[in-house]
Design brief:
Layout (H helix, E strand, L loop, with lengths): L2 E4 L6 E4 L25 E6 L5 E7 L14 E3 L2 E5 L3 E6 L13 H19 L6 E8 L11 E7 L4 H17 L3 H12 L3 E4 L3 E4 L10 E5 L12 H21 L2 E7 L9 H4 L3 H4 L3 E7 L1 H6 L12 H9 L4
Antiparallel strand pairs: 1-2, 1-6, 3-4, 4-7, 5-6, 7-9, 8-9, 8-13, 10-11, 11-12, 12-14, 13-14
Helix pairs in contact: 1-4
The structure holds zinc ion (3 copies).
């Protein structure tokens, strides 16, 4: 039986007691067409005209978080714990086992963006979930050992610590200046032009000022917008598909392993921070973080938690911008 336990020193929640019960048959890829019976049934599929799936989403075979788990907040002395209520889903992005994201065409990329959008919208309807995380890891240095292109969707009754930190700092900036922190970043970066990888009608792609990893790249809407899933119009979504694909082509030139993380607003209908603070949509600004992993970043990410970056974000932006695609 696994459960969430709150670390009273750091304030974050840890899942304790997770065990895998199902294992994958050796030598087969459970995500390849024809092997669908090796995974739980689809929650949602995007199909072609003949009815074959192009993108499919299903619950993880060994879910860390479960929809049927009780929230069950309780104490053990002064410690806090709760059930691992949530959703733990996988999205298979393509029928092809060997394609990487940069090899997708616009239609394939648009289908993935649609699936991300649908899953976030659907899971945010559950008032018990505070946050819906969408991310992908590619390559062994990013901790992914299934090559077949796939993403993860997690819905949890608590905010992930990284997002919590980001929100706290964005909130403090807003309380002090009455402006959104990321809006301020966008206008200064556009003015300075030192760390820009690309700029479109709707999006700024940049290497952040204090990049944690060499060649770290963020994709940010230029106009304030709290939620990834709330596309203003088709033109904005089309622009995103184009810029996301182009950015991944650049990133895959410099990194064979990477993580892609969607940072969208917390679930506004849920309890907790979002409900206590109706201004969350004024200070939270969605963005995509792309974190390339290489041997150096693995080596320099030490226990002291200080990231050490060899290529400056200014150098990285120039190199990425001039990559021939
Ligand atoms: Zn496969
Ligand atoms: Zn903003
Ligand atoms: Zn973020």
């Amino acid at each position: 039986m696994n459960e969430f336990r709150r670390d009273p020193f750091l304030g974050n929640w840890v899942v304790v007691g997770f065990r895998k019960t199902k294992s994958i048959a050796a030598g087969t890829c459970p995500f390849c067409p024809g092997n669908e019976d090796q995974t739980p049934p689809s929650i949602r599929e995007i199909r072609d005209r003949d009815g074959s799936w192009l993108v499919r989403c299903f619950s993880a075979a060994n879910p860390v978080f479960q929809i049927e788990a009780a929230e069950d907040k309780r104490a053990e002395g002064f410690y806090d714990k709760m059930g691992t209520l949530g959703a733990d889903e996988l999205i298979v992005e393509s029928r092809s086992h060997t394609k990487t994201i940069s090899a997708f065409d616009r239609d394939e990329m648009a289908r993935i963006v649609d699936m991300y959008t649908e899953r976030i919208v659907d899971l945010k309807k559950d008032r018990r979930f505070k946050y819906v995380q969408v991310f992908k890891h590619h390559g062994e240095l990013a901790g992914s050992f299934i090559f077949h292109p796939h993403s993860h969707v997690l819905a949890t009754p608590i905010l992930p610590q990284q997002l919590m930190l980001e929100m706290t700092n964005s909130r403090n900036h807003y309380l002090l200046k009455e402006r959104c922190l990321l809006c301020d970043v966008v206008s200064q970066e556009e003015r300075q032009g030192k760390r820009i990888v690309s700029l479109t009608d709707h999006f700024l792609v940049l290497c952040p000022f204090a990049s944690r990893l060499a060649f770290e790249v963020w994709i940010i809407p230029r106009k304030h917008n709290p939620a990834f899933e709330s596309w203003a119009d088709e033109a904005m979504k089309e622009d995103f598909v184009r810029v996301f694909l182009e950015t991944m082509k650049r990133v895959e030139k410099v990194a064979s392993s990477y993580s892609v993380v969607v940072h969208t607003s917390p679930n506004a209908v849920s309890q907790g921070l979002a409900e206590e603070d109706p201004r969350v949509n004024d200070y939270f600004h969605w963005h995509i973080e792309i974190l390339p992993r290489d041997v150096n970043s693995a080596r320099f990410k030490r226990d002291d938690q200080f990231y050490t970056v060899l290529t400056t974000p200014e150098e990285a932006a120039v190199l990425l911008k001039t990559e021939k695609l």
